[in-house]
Amino acid sequence: MRIVRTCEFMIPAWGGNDYYACRELARRGHDVTLFTSDLGPGRYYATWYWSLNRFGKHEEVVDGFRVVRSRALANFGGDMPLTPILPFEMRRFEADVIHAHEFYNITSLAAYMTATRKRIPFTYTQERYYSVKRGAWRIPYSLADRAVMGRVRKNPRYTTAFSTSAKEFLADLGYSEERIKVIPMGVDTKAFHPEVPPVFRKRLGLDSEPLILAVARLHRSKGLTHLLNAMRKIADGVREARLAVVGRGPEEQALKSQVNRLGLQSNVSIITEHITHGEMPGVYASCDVFVMPSIYEPFGSAAVEALATGKPIVATQVGGLRDIVVDEQTGFHVSPGDSNTLSERLTLLLRDHGLRKRMGEEARRRAVKVYDWSIVAEQYEALYSKLLE
After folding, report:
1. Cα 362–chain centre separation
2. I need a labelling partner for 161 at 20 to 30 A (CA). Which of 153, 180, 204, 313 fits?
3. What pLDDT is recorded for position 144?
4. Are residues 282 and 229 part of one domain?
5. How many other CB atoms are found less than 10 A from the CB of residue 63?
6. Residue 188 and residue 368: Cα distance in Å, rounded?
7. Cβ within 8 Å of residue 276, ≥6 positions away
């Protein structure tokens, strides 16, 4: 099958849904081409540029699939690159199906226009489960949706969503629920597994102290202020407990100030140094419990990686986390902003080794059964076959 996919950014070293999905589909014998921009996400990380030729493009083969990058002339909101030559590049390629990322992105519009022009079946995957633009962006977003983006959203015969929440969001916008298939982001269960050495503990200077881990952008949407409030209560009951927060973002100084204000300097480490994706299995393996206290969360790929590493998870019941964590089986759900329940659930897991072990084993089983990339790729193949019927 000749598969064309589009996304806004793709950096192989970071992994990500589009990289792994394309790699797995290529391994299964499909001819896969990914169209993307020459940028990396610039809002929280340094922008990356590729060496483009004089026509503003760059082609390469990455792990068995073709990647075509087009120069971005602008990047709206930090996650919506404008790549004018992308639709012209797409027209050069023959495809059986074209698959875009979310309905409102400019790259998705280019994919939809190409599919319509060439009469190729088109689909997209919805990640977010809430309106993407607020405040000053609300009016232009609404106008764009009525003018063109609504067509991208409504026209596919079948489409997919990363989570039940995203599916419900599309259904609320009028897309037939029967035509939406939930296909989550996956995880490399061979790289992320329980036997990985816990090398991150040495970096933190820890021996046998119980460790809670959070991997997240340092942004107010991640609920980290509530986690620090919970940690104050946890430290009162489990004095040796430690929390490591791994990530970067605009809230770094505010969170460090909160740590000092709460007197948690000896209990909390905020790690902002670069850690490669290849090193992350050792980070997850080093913790006893993983936590994701997000206020809203489109999916939660870090939670899936923790799941595959066999760690119990305490997470808010929002977005993709509703699906990833099975309450009282692979961890616990808590309400967003509820630091009291968050501290209770984390304290319970820190004190009960048997419970941690049972939930961790169930977490690993769920990761292999539901989120392994081979399972995800099979679901995409089935979707594409339905589109070609």
Report:
1. 22
2. 313
3. 66
4. yes
5. 14
6. 9
7. 13
- Cα 143 to its chain centre, rounded Å, is 28
Average pLDDT, the chain: 91
Contact 311, 350 (CB under 8 A): no
Cα(192)–Cα(307) distance, integer angstroms? 9
- Residue 162 burial (CB count, 10 A): 26
Looking at the structure, do residues 208 and 170 belong to the same domain, yes or no?
A: no
Task: Answer yes or no: do 8 and 126 share one domain.
Answer: yes
- Same domain, yes or no: 134 and 16: yes
| Stretch (H or E) spanning 97 | strand 97-101
Nearest alpha carbon to residue 247 among 280, 285, 214: 214
* Alpha-carbon gap, residue 364 to 323, rounded angstroms: 15
What tens digit of pLDDT does each residue of 189-245 get? 999 999 999 999 999 999 999 999 999 999 999 999 999 999 999 999 999 999 999
- Same domain for 22 and 80? yes
Distances (CA, A) of 284 to 200, 207, 327, 335, 366: 8, 16, 20, 23, 17
| pTM of the complete model | 0.92
At 359, list the tokens: 């939930």
Considering the domain architecture, whether residues 23 and 12 belong to the same structural domain is answered as: yes
Rounded mean pLDDT, 259-265: 97
pLDDT given for residue 44 in this prediction: 42
Statement to judge: residues 44 and 132 lie in one domain: yes
Q: Which among 274, 135, 286 is positioned nearest to 204, based on CA atoms?
A: 286
What's the CATH code of the domain at 223?
3.40.50.2000
Nearest partner of 300 among 319, 286, 283, 285, judged by Cα: 319
At 68-116, the pLDDT tens digits run: 998 888 877 667 888 888 888 898 899 999 999 998 888 998 999 999 9
Sign of the Cα pseudo-torsion (333, 334, 336, 337, in order): negative
In a domain, 337, yes or no: yes
pLDDT, mean of residues 174-189: 95
Q: Which of 316, 17, 319 is nearest to 169 (CA)?
A: 319
Q: What is the pLDDT of residue 46?
A: 46
Q: Domain of residue 288: give its range.
A: 200-371
Evaluate whether residue 192 is within a structural domain: no
- 157 with 278, same domain: the answer is no
